[in-house]
Amino acid sequence: MPKIFTSPNNHNQAVLVTGAGGGIGRATALAFANAGAQVACLDIDKSSLAETVELLKGAGHAIVADLRIIKNFPSILDEAESKVGPIDALALVAAVLRRLKVVDVTEDDWDFHLDLNAKASFFLGREFAERLKRGNRIGAVVTTSSQSWWTGGLDGAIVYAASKGALVTLTRGFARRYGPSNIRFNSVAPGFVDTQMLRSGLDDAAIDRMLSATPLGRLAEPDEVANAIVFLASPASSYITGATLVVAGGQLMF
Fold it and tell me: What is this structure's pTM?
């Protein structure tokens, strides 16, 4: 990937990636670093986060935090900017999934999904955008939705799908709110990506059903989604806002 996050004066721009400890989040942190950015990597899992930072070879900086604690968001952004400088882009990749039958979903399960997948994205996205606005700085936010926001969720993922649908809506609302300040909000909606989260609770038959529903006939690699996130966060997409980019191998078309 070209060094699209290095400015003409050779200054490396900075980004914050949530959920950077593994899966799509780790791949996104690596993709940003390969594109020339300094990357503040956030995750609740200290050991997996350390592995990501080691892979970034000097371009990554760890922030251990629980995104369910909303009041900490200003200090999280302060810490990130103290490590990498003024942040130009925010990639909201952190997510959770519990596969459950509808009749087994509890209030705790509902809150678990919505608090991290939607609520945290709203408040951290807003905190970042308001910070940019106060400083008269431009920037970009990319949320991570899912093809399930359209399908309603498969294989016990109905609450997860609801949380991802909320992300699409808030991304569009923020795009309208902050567009006049030249702050862009977009979303990436992955299909079936070969991660530990996807495979949790699934047997081979379920994976086969996913593959049969995907015209490209395979699971995505995390870096294939990460590249789309980097594109939407970068100057290469400077006239795109409020969009949902589906990266699903043709499984979802609209």
Answer: 0.91
